[in-house]
């Protein structure tokens, strides 16, 4: 552990890290010391010193100092362990790996009919939308070889959850949706087209609400639980739809909905026979209502989710009527 940390700090020099995060400084008389405004507290007079040889910082204003890991702890409000994980990620970003995997799956979609067939069966037929959402297909063949060509090790692919210990593609025979956050792929969602458990995500955060960048400025949002619901609503012109990728919202996703206090959220979760979707929708309704938002429940026909509703013949006008007839607390 100690050796690993030492190596980590050698691979990311403190000064380089600070520059990458927009710290402006000047060198003190050609020596190893640099000085600039403190990134940890508000100040107008430069009192933040970095010694590039020792890889240490000290601020005379807020009297805090230490090494790179200490700086990450203080600046990002992370624990020691979280800071180390953050820096490891900074070195070899998993997001880049996921973006490459997503690009591979996107190509595979057009090489194997069953992926496109499945999309058609789920009502997704707009080629531009498929492209825009970055939808792909994992045929199960050679994602490992493809990614290893980029220099990724088997350990990295395994750690990311893209392959299993036997080296096989964990998304085998799944339609893939990349989950993006500010243009970075943070996770992949795979819908089984065969008999495997329907839903699969990588063992990491699902990130914020789906396609948040494209809807965050809108006041009225439709919230769905599945990406096929989102795809069909977008296809029908309801571009103000976002998706939580299941019914449980993360603190980040809840905070996003609450960003605009005047927001109106239409919850259009599945109408399951076991009431799971309805219960989750009710809990969310209570929570957002208490936060002062205008929240409405969309009452889909029994046994339906937005995806199946459209497949069984509902039109955009039908769905617009459901929005109008939606109920609040
Ligand atoms: Zn300071």
3D structure, described in words:
With 329 residues, the chain is an alpha+beta fold. It has 15 helices and 13 strands. The strands form three sheets. The chain has a five-stranded antiparallel sheet with strand order 1-2-3-4-5, with helices on one face. Helix 3 packs across helix 4. The chain is globular and about 75 Å long. The model has no long low-confidence stretch (mean pLDDT 92). Zinc ion is lined by residues 38, 40-41, 48, 59, 61-62, 64.
Q: How do you describe this structure in short?
A:
This protein has helices at 2-11, 14-20, 68-76, 80-91, 94-109, 113-121, 127-133, 143-148, 154-160, 212-215, 227-235, 251-258, 276-290, 306-311, 316-324; strands at 25-27, 33-36, 48-51, 56-59, 65-66, 136-138, 174-181, 184-192, 199-201, 220-224, 241-243, 264-267, 294-297. With 329 residues, the chain is α+β, with helices and mostly antiparallel strands.
- Outline the low-pLDDT stretches: none
Helix content: 40-55%
Largest sheet: 5 strands, antiparallel
Cα distance spanning the termini: 53 Å
Q: Note the beta-strand portion.
A: 15-25%
Structural class: alpha+beta
Query: Secondary-structure element order, as H and E?
Result: HHEEEEEHHHHHEHHEEEHEHEHEHEHH
The geometry reads as: globular
Determine the number of helices (DSSP H or I, runs of at least 4 residues): 15
Q: What compounds sit in this structure? A: zinc ion
Radius of gyration from the alpha-carbon trace, in angstroms: 24 Å
Query: How would you state the average pLDDT, rounded?
Result: 92
How do the strands of the widest beta sheet line up side by side? 1-2-3-4-5
